[in-house]
Amino acid sequence: MIFNSQVENKLFERGWFLNGEIKFTAPVKPVSSQNNSEQKQLFRKQIHQITTQSEFIITGTCWVAIDYYCQHIRRQKNPGVYDMDNIVKPILDSLVGINGLILDDVLVDRVTVNWIDTPHDDHIEVEIQYPDLIFVKKTDLVIIKSDSGWCWPVSQQLLTLDGFSEMAKRNFNTWDSIKSEDDYYALVYMLPIQPYLYFSKIKDKNYTIVDLSSLDAQTS
C-alpha cells in the first residue's frame, strides 16, 4: 500500500474541515494498549507524521470511527491477535494534542471500530465527525482558564474583540453556577456551543493557556 502525503494533506484543508468530517488512511499496524510504552510511542509518531500536516484542530464534540484492515488469515491464525477494544486507546491517544486532530479525547462521544479483510498490508482508516463544526487553527488556539479550573478553547482573534473579557467571565460564572441537571437545562441557552474542559485534562498537551483573570490585560 502506497501512502501519498500530498493527497492526505489536501484532506486537512479548511474546506474539508468545514464539511464536519475528516478521514485519513495510515499505513501502519495498530498497537495494543497492552504493548510497552516504546511501541505505543512509535505508533503515535507514525500517526503524527500524518496529522501534523493539519493546520486545524477539532475543539468540539466529535465521533471517531476506526477501520482496521488486516488479511483474514493473518487475523484468524494469529494466537497473539489484538482484541479490537485494545487498539482503540492507542489510536485515540495519537489523535489528541497539538500534533493530532482533536483537542482532547474527553470530547469524543462515540467510537466505532471494525476489522475489514484486505489482500494488502495492514493499515487503518480513521474518520472523525464533528457535527457542531467547531475547530480552530492550531496556531490561533488559546485556552482560557478560570480560577475554578475549567477551560474554554477559543481562537486568539476573539481576545481582541471589544467586550470579550466580560463575556468570557459571564460565561464562566454561568457554567460554575450549574450544580444539577435541572440547572444545566435552565441555563444551557446562555452558554457557548464550545464545550468546556477541565484543566487537568489538557495541562500537559502544550497548549497556550491564558488565565481568565489576565484577560483584561490581554485584550487591552
Fraction of residues in helix? 25-40%
CATH class of the largest domain: Alpha Beta
Task: Write the CATH homologous superfamily of the largest domain.
Answer: Holliday junction resolvase RusA
Helix tally?
9
Beta content comes to 15-25%
Rg, please?
Answer: 20 Å
The ordered string of helix (H) and strand (E) elements is HHEHEEHHEEEEEHHEHEH
- DSSP strand tally: 10
Strand order of the largest sheet: 1-5-3-4
The average pLDDT value, as a whole number, equals 89
Q: Which class best fits the helix and strand makeup? A: alpha+beta
The main pleated sheet reads as: 4 strands, mixed
Low-confidence stretches: 1-7
Oligomer: single chain
Terminal Cα separation, in Å? 53 Å
CATH topology of the largest domain: 60s Ribosomal Protein L30, Chain: A
CATH architecture of the largest domain: 2-Layer Sandwich
Q: Total domains, how many?
A: 2
Write a short abstract of this structure.
The protein has 220 residues and is of the alpha+beta class. The chain has 9 helices and 10 strands. It has helices at 5-10, 14-17, 37-51, 72-76, 88-95, 164-176, 181-187, 199-202, 215-219, and strands at 21-26, 56-58, 62-69, 108-116, 123-129, 135-137, 141-145, 150-155, 197-198, 209-211.
Keywords for this entry:
220 residues, alpha+beta, 60s Ribosomal Protein L30, Chain: A, 2 domains, 4-stranded mixed beta sheet, 24% strand, elongated, disordered N terminus
Produce the secondary structure layout:
Blueprint: H1 5-10, H2 14-17, E1 21-26, H3 37-51, E2 56-58, E3 62-69, H4 72-76, H5 88-95, E4 108-116, E5 123-129, E6 135-137, E7 141-145, E8 150-155, H6 164-176, H7 181-187, E9 197-198, H8 199-202, E10 209-211, H9 215-219
Parallel strand pairs: 3-4, 7-10
Antiparallel strand pairs: 1-5, 2-6, 3-5, 7-8, 8-9
Helix pairs in contact: 3-5
